[in-house]
Amino acid sequence: MVKYNIKKYPKGSFKGQKTDGKYMDGWLHSALKLYAKKISRDMTFLGIIFSSTLEVGTGKSVMATQIGEAWTEIINDMYGFDYEFKVDNIVWQPKDLIEKSFDVPKYSMILLDEWEDSTYWSELGMSLRQFFRKCRQLNLFMIAIIPNWFQLPLSYAVSRSIFAIDVRFNDKLDRGFFSFYNFPDKRFLYIMGKRTHNYKCAKPTFVGRFQDGYGVDEEEYRKKKYDDMLEYDRKNPIK
């Protein structure tokens, strides 16, 4: 484990904190540093977070927002920026992805949080196609949280995404566990496991733990998520 955001979280910032900063798995932090270094070479990165058990409440959003604040600190240190990862960097509907991509500066992270609707997969596929056609030159780092890895279109699961993370409970239903798949490992997982939805057909690149606690203001996050849901329901009433 490594420490990050030491200045943002001085000792006493949250319950149980004994030293400044937050902890992150060292291998994950190293992967983020590699992507941050390479993004300056006219790159745009897509990462996928899912749960192999197809359960809700495993902590996918918690982990994704922690990645967001760690990524932002790395980018700031590497390129001399003064960015902040906030709730404004999060969208819940795929159609909002492109608009948001033009609202944030280069090298920023955008999080497409999990969204459930009957049109989810068709809108996700269309939005990702438009994103890579229109926004690739913006040099952004994007994470999409999805319900089911094997329902993701092959072009994004295999070709477009740089990594995939399986966030899950342990046998005692405790949160905070993940498996990381780099580019070749996630390709093997998808191609070999898709037919039977077998998540045990491929070994992850590494496994790790993550702590509880959102990387953005939790109250603001929950309010924006709820407001977004209400707005969607208003525009798409059940008939």
Key traits:
239 residues; alpha/beta; single chain; 7 helices; two-stranded antiparallel ribbon
Category by helix and strand content: alpha/beta
Mean pLDDT: 90
Q: Strand percentage, roughly?
A: 15-25%
Stretches where pLDDT is under 50 for at least 5 consecutive residues are none
Alpha-carbon distance between the two ends: 50 Å
Q: What is the topology, as strand order, of the major beta sheet?
A: 4-5-6-3-7-8-9
Write the H/E string, N to C: EEHEHEHEHEHEEHEH
Please explain how this structure is put together.
The N and C termini lie far apart (50 Å). Helices cover 37% and strands 16% of the residues. It has 239 residues and is α/β, with parallel strands linked by helices. The protein has a seven-stranded mixed sheet with strand order 4-5-6-3-7-8-9. Helix 1 crosses helix 2 (60-79) and helix 5 (154-160) runs antiparallel to helix 6 (183-193). The protein is globular and about 45 Å long. It has helices spanning 26-38, 60-79, 97-101, 120-134, 154-160, 183-193, 218-235; strands at 2-4, 22-24, 45-50, 90-91, 109-112, 141-145, 163-168, 177-181, 206-209. The longest helix has 20 residues, at 60-79. The relative contact order is 0.17. Helix 4 (120-134) links the parallel strand 5 (109-112) and strand 6 (141-145).
